[in-house]
Structure formats: C-alpha cells, structure tokens
## 1
Amino acid sequence: MVKELILVFIATVLVNNFVLKYFLGICPFLGVSDKLSSAISMGFATTFVMTITAPVAWLINNYILVKFNLPFLQYVCFIIVIASLVQFVEMVIKKFFPLLHQSMGIYLPLITTNCAILFMTLQLVLKDYSLIKSMVFGFGAGVGFTLAITIMASIREELKFQDVPESLKGPGITLIIAGILALIFVGLGGLIQVK
Amino acid sequence: MQRTNILFSDFIKGLWQQNPTFRLLIGMCPTLAVTSQVQNGLAMGLATAFTLLASSIIISIFRNFIPREVRIPSYIVIIATFVTIVSLFLKANFPEVSKDLGPYVPLIIVNCLILGRQEAFASKNPVYRAIADALGMGIGFTLSLMVLASVREVLGMGTLLGHQVIFGNFRPWVIMLTPPGAFLTLGLLLGLVNIIDKAVKARKEKK
C-alpha cells in the first residue's frame, strides 16, 4: 500500500510532470517565473490548493455524481469546487496567517484558472484512485509543478545577464528553455512503468 | 458605415495584432498539447472558437444583470456548460477526435483566452460587437494552432492532414511530436513572428 503510494508520487512528480509532459499550468509557468521568490510562492500556493482539492473532488464525485448518476455535471461541479476552495483557502490564510497571505496572496486567485488543477481532478476520476491515493496524486502534481517552475525561475534569473537574440527575448527564449527541460524529463520516462 | 468599420476592426485584431497565441500568449496549454497533428489542432481550435462565441453572446446579453461581485464564477459556469455540450457532441459524432484530444477538451473551461475575452470585451460591449470579437479571436486561435501543428506534423511524420507531403529519403524527426518539440517549435515561431512584425513596422515608417 505504502509502496504503491510512493510510486504514484514519484510518477506524478518526475515521470508525468504536469508542466513538462502534459503542458498544464503553462500560463503561470511563463508568467510568474521571472523571479525565484515569486515562483516558489506560486508553487507552494498551487501545491496547497491541489492537495485539498483532490480529496474534496473525490468525495463529490463518488458520493454525489456517481450515486445520483449525474456524470454530465462533472465539469461544472469540479470547476465550482475549485473556484470556491481557492476562495476559501484565501480567506483562511488571510485570517490566520497574515504573513503568508502577504507573500502568496496575489497568486491565489490566479490558481482557479490554472488548468493543472482541473486536469488533476478529472484524472483521478479517470484512473479510479482511492481517497488516499487521490491526495497523494494531488500533492505530487503540486510538487511537480513547483519543481518545474523553480528550475525555470532559477535559469531565467541567470538569463538576465546573457545576450539573447533580440526577437527571442521574453517568452520566445523561455519556451526554448522549457523545451530543453522537457527533453531532460523525457529521459526520466523509463524510471517507473505507470499504468 | 462607421458601424461596419468598428465591427471589422473588432474582428481583424484577433488575427494578427492581438493574436491570442503569438501576441497575447494566452491559452497556451491546449496550444502546445494537441498540435502534434493538424487534424487535432483544427478540432481543438474550432471547439474553443464555438465555446468562445456562444459564451460571449450569452454573457454580452446578460452583461447588465450579472452582479459584479460574482461575475467570474458566473462566467465560468456559463463556459463550463458550453464545454460540456462540445464534449458530448465530439464524443457522439467524432469519437476518434474525442479520444485523441482526451482530457484537453474539458480544459477549454480554464483556457484563459475565453475567460479573458469575457472579462475584457463581452462584459462591456453590445452583442454584435462581442460576436465580431469572438469570431476574430476564435479564428485567430484556430489558425495559429494549425500553423504550429503543420510545422510539427510535416517535420515529425512527413505528412500533412494524413497525406504524405515529403518524399524520398526523409527520416521523420520524431522529437517534433513529443513535448520538447512542441516547446521548441512555439519558441522559434514566436521569434519569427517578432521578426516579421518588426519588418512590417519598419516598412510602414518608411512610407
């Protein structure tokens, strides 16, 4: 059981990295990765929301949607869950951890439209994960996102002092670097056989 | 006359000046994910364009009734409804395409292009202008997906829309079909668009 959970975790972080394999969360990946500190805050905020969203989405799917035979409401339900959870998390953090809110406050509302989260909830239904496995999956997806955006931000901080061709400045060179990073992660593909 | 002019400029700006993919850099997730083949790029483009058009019309009609405080959740629910329709339609009529696009169809809901246009345009303008804007943006998005997909499909498989286009001793660059190929192609295309844009501007200044 524990072994299986560890496998799911490593598979989601490294082998099936959400950003570099499935192209999820590209908007924050390109937009918030120019400073290391903000990239890390964004990563933590996303991981936090994902870990909470996964079990809630699982419960709603199994106890409401499946039970009452309403699969066509899946998209609408999940997006409402995500939007309201993000709002809720923001309120809780603002009330109890004002310092934390200062550092990641502006990133929280952006998370609603991070496609990685909706994708994650749909995947855990598709893969028929158990409740605990879903949580590990959500956490792993968040860690994978944090890993990718942190690596990217570190490279871009160095890039400021480099001589980049005029027309590739900004998003162009960022995407090319992402391509090289993705190449590295393709190399990790043989690490685990994922079903 | 003036009205047609406004409509035309609303429409045309999505194609080049404010092209969602190459200029505004929004809606990148599906752009990169489904463009390994032209057919899938086209399907995703059209699905997004339909959702954008339908939700723009609805939101533009109800723009004075939706309270400002809850506008984002209301937009998302409207968009999600249309995406559900698209998803069921694809599943029923084009099961193969639906299988290829897989999990990326529901992700149209959180495509920032759609939410962005509602927030920036449809919620502030009358229906006829919202339609022009949505059509322009939708077609611009579809075209740029197809440009990206053509490059990747021709180099990655030597085919275009499933027909062989490169003959002879060509060995396909399989890397173009994988995620790294997607990032590299889009990065280089962005550079190309910037060069073209600069050349066009320089020419205009000369005149």
## 2
Amino acid sequence: MEGAKIEELDFVYLLSTLARSSTILNASKTDLNHLCARVNNYLSSNNVRYRWIGSKLAIVLNTHIEITASEYTSKYLGALIKALESKCFIKDEASAPVYAIVTLESCCDALSFIIGNIRGKHALTREVLTPKLPSIIGSLLEIIHLVPLKAIDLLYDLLKNNSTTFRPFGSKFERALLGLLGSDGFTKFEYQLQHKIFKSLALLSFSLTKNSTSELWRTKFNHYVQETKSVIQIYSEFMSLDEDEDLMQQLNALPSVPEKFEPSFPPLDIDLNESPLQIMKIVSRIGFLVNLLVEFLQVPTPQVKAPIGYLLMIGQILVGINHRFTPIKRDIRDVTLRQIIAQSATLINEVGLKLLNALPGIFGGDLLPHLNSVLSSIDTLIPVSRVNGRIIVDEESVLDNPELIFAGLKTRINFLELVEGFTNMSLLEKSIDAALILSKPRVPQGLAKSSEQRLKNASISDLLSDQKTFITEATEDQKKLLRQYFKVLLTRCVVSYSKQSEILRVIILDAVKGAEMKELLHAALLFPHKEANASVLPMVKQLLDDDELVSVFLNPRLPLLPTKRVGDQALIEEREQEREEEKKDEERPVKKIKIEETVPVEAPAKDNLKEDIFEETKETLETTSKEDVSDYEKMIFKPVGSLVESTDVARASVEDVKPVAVEQAPSAQSPSGSPSGDESDFEIPEIDIDDD
Amino acid sequence: MDELLFYNSVGDPSKKHSTSFGFLSSIHSSQQIGQYRQCYSNINGTALTGVGGEHKVIVACKGKALIQVYLHGKESPEQTIPLPEEISCLEIFPHPDSQRSWLLVAGAVSGRLYVWELDSGLLLTVKESHYQSVGVIKCTKGYIVSGGADSRIVVWKVLDILSDSHKPYAIFTDHTLPITDIAISSGLINDIKLWSVSTDQTVRCYDLTSLALVTTFVAQHPIQSIAADPAFRCVYIGLTNGTIRMIHLFQASPQTQIWEQVGGFGKIITLKDDTDLRETFTNHQIGENPVTKIAVSFDGTQIVSGDSNGKVLVLDVATKQTVRTLKQLAGPVSTLKLFRLEANTVSNSALKTAVRTIPVLKRNLVEDSDLQKHEVHRKFTDFESLQQLDLESFLDTVKSEQRWFHNFTGVDSTVKQNKENVRSELEELKESYASMKSKYDALYDEHSKLLMNSK
C-alpha cells in the first residue's frame, strides 16, 4: 500500500478486508500505525485520485473503535479539511471535472461519517471534534456551491448539534443558501436539495440565538406567514377575491402585514404587459414560502407554540383561489392572460393542497376540530355542472385536470386517516364520484367525440382498427392513490350503501383483472355495510386463495382450542388416583399406552411449536422469570399456542374425538411428573392442589 | 422488559393529605422508581401521559376544583390548574395512530363531561352527560364512554364531540345502581365491546356497533372494579366483600364438550357460589375491604389489585397466591395503571431539558375565533436514524465512483516523452547556441572594429 502500488490491488477487496474487525484486531501495533499513516498520506496527497482513495479508506478504518479512538482521527479530520479547502484544485468552477466533484463529495462523506462516529463520545468530542469544528464549517462553506447536497447535509447536521460553534458562521451560511436559491430560481433544484435548503434556512433563522429560541421561532414563523399573506394579496389585483366572503374572512384573520414590513426575500417584479408568464413568479414564490413554513415544523425546536390555525387558513385560502368563485377582473381583457391567470390559480391550489397534506402527519388529532372546514374547502376543487337542476360532478373537467383531483384525494386520505366512523358524507360524495370517474379507463376525448380531424392525421383508421391502444388509464401511482382512498372510505367512513356497492364493484373488477388489491379486499371483508345483504366473502376467497386472513374468516375460531374439558374436580381426582397408581406401579400406566396409540404423528411437532412460543414468551419476560410462575404461565397460556395452527382447529370442531384425545394426553399424564416419553417436550407443571 | 405500576389513593383528609402519596414501582422487582407527594384523587381520577422522560401525571384532587400536574422524577406537583368544578374522573385519549396524548377527558361531580385538548389547553367541549357524578371514563377508537352514579352509561363519538352535536352516540340504562368501572375491548371499530360493572351486582357487556346488551353476569356482591385479560379470555371483577372473581368468557359446553363463548344473545348468567375458590381470589378478604381497582399484567398471568384500605397486591392468576405486596397507601386505592417498557430505561430523576408543564387548561369553552388562532404547544423533532455503515452499498458506491478515475476508452491521451532524448537534444541545442553566440560575438567585434576604423 504505497503510492501508486495501490492501483495494482482490487480496491473494493481491500476495503472489505479492512472493514472486517478481525483484520484490525489481529494486526500488530506497528502494522496499524503504518496503515493509518499510509491512509493519512493518501488523504494529504496532491493527487486527486489518492485523496479519493484516502477518503474511502478513512471511512472504513473509522468503523473500528480502535482507530477512531487513536490520534489519527484528528489527523484525518485535518487532512479532509485541507482537501475541501483546496477544492480539489478545481480551477474553473463553472465546469469542474467530475472526478474532482466526486472526490469532494467523498471527502464530505468521510467527514460526516467520522463526525457521526465521534458524536456522543464526550472525551473524543472534546479532544478531537470541537477544536476542528470552526475550520470544518469554514471549509464546507467554501464548497457549498460545488457539492451542495452533501455540504448542506453536513452543515445542517453541525448546525443542529453544535449551534454554539456555528454562531459566527450563521449569516455566511444563510447568504450561501440564498445565493444558491437565487432570486427566483427555487424551482431549479430537485426536490431533495430544495428540501435540505429550506430545512437549513428554517433552522438557521432561530436556532443561533442564545436565549428565547422559542420566541424567535414564533417571530420568524409569523414573519413568513405575513410575507405569504402579502404575496397572496397580489392576486387581488387581478382576481376579485372579495366575492368569496369566506376567503376574505380567512385572509383578514391572518396576522396583518405592517406598513413598514420588510420581506426577507427580494420583492417580486411583475409586469404583465411584458409577459403574462410573469404571474408564475407569484406561484413560485408562494410555493417557496409554504415550503419554508412546513420546514419550520420539521426541524428540531424547543417547545414552541405552533399556530395550526394560521397554517390551515393559508392552506384553505390557497385552495380557495378559484376562478369560478373569485372571477378574474373584467378589466383584464387579454384572453391569453386570463387563461394564464386561471391556470396559475390551479397551481396555487396545488400548493395549498401540499400544505394541507403535510399537516396531519405533524399535528395528528389537533387538526380534527377543523376537519369539516378543511374537507369542505377541498371539496370546492371538484368541478361540477348542473344537469336538470341537479348538481353532478363534471366528468370532462375532472379528466381535464386529474392532477389536482388526485392531490385533493391525497389530502382527504391524510385527514380521514385521523378519524374513525366519519359520517358527514356530504363532504365526500363529490370526491367519491370523481374518484370513480378517474378509476375508469377512457378513450382520448378528442378522438372519441368526433371523427372530424382538426389536424392532418396520417391515418384515422388506426382508431378504428386498434382502438385498444388509444385507451388511457390512470398511472400506477394514481391507481394506488385511488385504492388508498377507497380503503379509507371503507375503513374510516360510513359510506351510503349504494356508493359502497359502486366502490366494491370497482375494487372487485380491478382485482379480477389481476391488480394487487390485498389490503382493499381485506378492508371490504372486515368492514361490511350494515345494510348489505350479500357478503363479498366468496369473491374475496376466490381472489385471495391463500390468504391467512381469509382463512381465519372461513375457519372461525375462539381464543381457545376446542378441547374436551373434564370438570376440574374430576381431573384432580383422576390425577391423584394416577399418582397413587404410579407409586404402586413403576411401569407406565396402561392408560398411557392407549393414549400413545391415538397420538397422531403431528403431535410432537405441534408440541414443539408450542414450546417455541413459550420460549419466546419467556424471553420477553425476562424480568418475570420466576421459576414457578413461568411454569404456571405455560399452563395458562396453553390455549394461545393454538392460534397458530389453523386447520387443526376446524377439523377438531367437526370430528372431535381424536384431537381431543391428543390434547388430553399430555394433561392426563402431567401429574405423574415423569420426564419420559415423546411427549416430554411439552412440560406440564405439577399443580400442588394440597396448598390450596 | 419491565412493567411499572403507578398507583395512588383517595388519600386521608384527616391528616391534610400529608400521608397521601402516589408511587411508581416495578411489579416484577422491588424497585421503586418514583413517588409523588399529595397525590390523591377520586377513584379513576388520575391519568398519566406515559412513564419516564417528559411524561406527566395528571391528578384531579379529591374534594377540590383543582388539577395537579407532576413531572416524572419530581416529588411535588409542578403545576396546579384551577378548574370550574371538582373533577371526579380523568382519562387521556391518545392521538390517532400514535401514543402521544391528545385529549384530556374529565368527568365532573355535577355529571358534566369536559374535553380539553392537551396540546393547546383549549376546552373543546362541555357535555351534560350524567345527572349525577361521573364515576369512570374510558376511551377507545373514536369513542368516549362514561359511566355515572346515575347508573347510566353514555357513549360519545369523538367526532361528534368536536363538532357541535349534542346527541350522544348511545345511552345504556340497564344498570340500576351507580356504575363503578368500565372495560373496553379494542380492535376493529365494529368489534368493540364494552364491559360495565355496577353496585347493582351485575356485569354487562354491550356491543358498540349494534348497541345490543350481549350478556349480563350477576354476581353475589356489589361490584367495585373490573379488568380484562389482554386477550379477553376472562374478566376479573373486584367485589365489595374483598374478593376478586374471575369470569371465564369461554367454556366447554357440558353436552358437546366443545369450547364455546360464554353468553351472547342477551343471556343472563348468574355466577354460582365458588366454594372451592377455583375462580376467586381471597387475598383482600381479611377485613372485607372492597377491591377498588384491578389491573392485569402484560402476559395475563398476574393481576394487580388495590382495596379500600390502601393495600396493593400482585397476585398470580394460576395459584391465586400473593406474589408481592406493594407499599400501602392512605385510603382506598384510586388508580392502578401498568406500563410496559424496556428494562432500566426509566431513571428516577427528571430530565433536565424536559418541558415541565402542560398548557393551562382553559375554563371557557372554545369559540370560532379561538380556533382561528389555534396554537398548539409542540416540540418538533426531525427523525434521524443511527449512523451505521452498510458495507455492501458503500462498496457499490465506491465501484460507481471509481469509474470516474478510470479510462475505459482505450485511447490514451497522455503525451509520453523520452527523457533521454530530450536531454541530448537540449545538450545539442545548448552547444549550437554557444557556438552561434561565439560566432556572433566575433562578428560583432569585427563589425565594431571596422566601424571604428572607418571613422
């Protein structure tokens, strides 16, 4: 392992050898020293490849406590910091070579692994980590724009656990993060990186203060709520929001934006005359702020007062901006602009749904006082039309924007999972209809409607001959969502009989087609409708032939085995008799032989099974393990073992003679206490009736 | 694993409650984890959010319109909250699909039911549930059940309680004397069964879906308490004569010899005298102290029972013997709550960083404007898993990263140089340069000489 010689080896093999603890344990002290020093050399080499090799070796070596505890850890940290600081000799940061980036990322990984290893060990932290922390943070801030994901990850970790050391770097980190985001570029990153940036921003905004962190959290949170409100208010410029009273009321209930309000982010510059697409800036900014607000609820905080009310209101306002209820102002005449505004409103709705969607997982039951208002505001998103004076779900519009409907379903699922026996079905009926519409396969509308060609098509004959290939269906994820929704409806809500039959029809048809519907079919089985005359059991049985739950349904059982129970008194007398007999007769009693004849082959196996179960019970109850008690425990728990066996029970209940004998066999002999025979696997303790 | 028992009593007002303690101790060893001073309540009047860490003990003081909150590991109350009236029983409803406490449900002496949200302290609802004092409250999936001295059982749906519905889900009026205790089976929402006991000597089992009275057991003495085996194979009832009776819920039928469920279809079953004491625990019978509370251990092999004299015993179900006697309390035992946890995870002292109090419970009913500003007290965390190197995936990353350092194209773009050649070339060049320079110098000299001469 010297210099370039390492290239002759299979590096992966080397790593896996070093990862084995025996390699390190059996090595001599000099060898270990040599090894560690070599790794250090690689890390501090000027060759990028060697640095990369060094970083990987450092990770593997630090899995061993012997090395983590040695002086080399500190050296490795120093070398890694230097490697980061040098930015791997990247000259042109706009087009850095991949191998350099990979090396930087690998160095970050090694750093985070070593830090994670040290954390929690007080002496090591004090001696090794704390003195190095400022330079670690400094070097990470240098490379944040080169390897943002890893660097932010590690910086967030340090911010969370070492906020005191982090204090001087706070504003620098914040600037770096905002720099990454740019003025409008929040959508340019993948979700994971966005999430990490927001998380760090949220934590940064309050955690670096010395005292009253929770108050600062609240102030910052309120600030962003106000900022969100001020951005939403821009919409009142081109939509008449005041036509929706509820929406206005909710908007007014949010904390008012002071006149000298200083937003944290640069003000939006929108000129609709220049390009109508600039409206999207508002959408993107709202999305940005909402994400940030949600992150405030997912970073570690001291006890804070989280304003659920505001969050729900923001969510409902965003969901409520809808050109059907708050029409676009008449002085906007440009058709394209009007369409773009309407389109942006649906995007805003989606942001609102995303916010509402995140809350149940965080607040749980605390949201339930608001359940009805949330559900009714989501309900407004389902397009309806009036046919013969009846309001029905507008199929065409549903299919036109299925994403929004699916997002709505997802939010409903999350909220309904908090409740049991939800009865206010008027809030869900439209969504059930929409879900049923979406679950059907469909022919593309343009083609289905008319044969008149709007564009010059190569051949319309395909439509006639290969119609199947034109049918579109919901995607796999969407189907999963629909199934989840149906499951929630069946298990958590009291759906009307007709709707439930419709849902069951869809479920069973889907299952017949071969879809993976186990959970839903279970739900259909376990939650039958009160008014249902027919059971779905036969169909479910056919569809899930080998299912355990269905088997329990077909072979219902009690928590105890159907054994013949001799009256206790009689049993005691019998036992005493036996005991006496045994004293007289050293040989096996005659009865015993008879029993052995009736014992079928499975019996010992069954006993073994029971024994295993008892073993487990015993293990979990280490503390209770008092010899005599656990013996009795076996006896008491005897019936529980039977739950595992499925078919025996049913058979026993029908043809009761044999199994009864089986069960009786061990208990009849037990008082003899003789540790003999095949049955001795299963120890039945002696009962000292005399004590009573 | 260990099981911890929290127990306290009604207390002894004659000594100004100086002897009224609540204790937290293990039932499998002699370890006592904590004690709480002046911790007394009506029977069923104490609730716990859990054990250890930041968990709290919430005690409704007997005879006072006060709730005291104890932090785990602290002896004296951390917080005292005044209430509109004296609370006779308390229960905590956990968040859906979570262990965290959500609602604090309290039954008052006047028969009212108060529901607070523990995260915010908002008083979500007050229901006129009973005509007399509420004796016991139990919560299960979506239901809150209360039994009162007016011999009624009232069942509320949690969703109805949160909305403005005034109608309870069900009222059972079969008992003729005060309800003393209730047990509820859990499971699927349409399988939930309710067991109630009363001083009218009956145990009644109701089905919460069909609202039918399934079975009635008639005992020989007024019943004070009930607890069920974890798998509902039997229930234990505590009687006023100091005995505990075990009722098997499955029995072999004498004709067919096949096990079947006991009762059903509204059957009334009279419990026969158990002269052989095969289903009776007599451990509290000395002095005929009524058994006021019973709890069943995790594995169902032991029960913990407390009587009106403050005696708390751990009994073995099979032998009916006393396994352990716990520290005696002053006055009738009012609470027995068992918690199972990993062994040695609960320390005796309080966490330094713990949130010490609960939000103050509001005395005014929540209004719409309060809900708009609805704030919950929460400590947020981000979940992180412990760092462990997964060697296989690590090696796979190494392999994938390694590829950036390798040249797979077969084209070698590095420039190879022969050092020897370069050196000799350099030598040559140097030589020729030197000769050129000397020639140039000579020429220059010649030129300058000629120039001088011409002048």
